[in-house]
């Protein structure tokens, strides 16, 4: 039903575009000079929509059309890194809001004095995973630290994970005996208890050591279901990564990914610049980027990688 609804929504979009194109042609056939400006705007709108749909058509990965799980982890650096993690969280929430995606915080660990240590967010909408997979990696911030009394420049790192959100996957078999399930009280910032009962759930997959937790829902059953979905997504990601590493190893291309290899830098001092190190795409409007203007970076990276796939 979810797939059907998605396809119906896409068909509606194409039908609306077809109607818009017919209206523009009728407007052009009138030959009225007073309508030139309106016609120009209409053509620009149609062209932008066609380019968007042309780009979406290239997102043909197995999970590209589906929802995503976005996990953000503060790196070393104490308050600065945890504050940066919260800034990154806000950046993606604003990006999702602008695209009309639905977001839900699955799990969050507040920072000791500021920001957050980690969070997992469910992002639902057409092509959510297809777009967000471009954001996986280390994000670096350079700024004057608000936590440094001497106002020195600090560098902070945040790790972003992006996983496909799947309801079920027949290729992943989870043995219940391989799971350790712990329950605890959900807590908010400042240690305030959100629930008086042990509703939060943490599931550990013993063979791999992968941990998934959820404390956002109001019942233990709901939290357990969501935690299992997060675990499934992490196991699926692990399987895909091992397959990729094996292929690259056979090709002689495999290189182990290390923590320090940032994909993007956000510089707020001594100048303002956001630069993606994979594509060299950059923008000087750091405020806009941190407010969710990520599409140019995402599309630049995806066009590059999709182009490389087309050549291979």
Features:
eight-stranded mixed β-sheet, 42% helix, Alpha-Beta Plaits, 312 residues, single chain, alpha+beta, 11 strands, Double Stranded RNA Binding Domain, three-stranded antiparallel β-sheet
Your description of this structure?
This protein has three domains: 57 residues, no CATH class; 147 residues, Alpha-Beta Plaits (2-Layer Sandwich); 76 residues, Double Stranded RNA Binding Domain. It is 42% helix and 24% strand. An eight-stranded mixed β-sheet has the order 2-3-1-5-4-9-10-11. Strands 6-7-8 form a three-stranded antiparallel β-sheet. It is globular, with a radius of gyration of 22 Å. The chain has 312 residues and is α+β, with helices and mostly antiparallel strands. It is built from seven helices and eleven strands. Strand 2 and strand 3 form a beta hairpin.
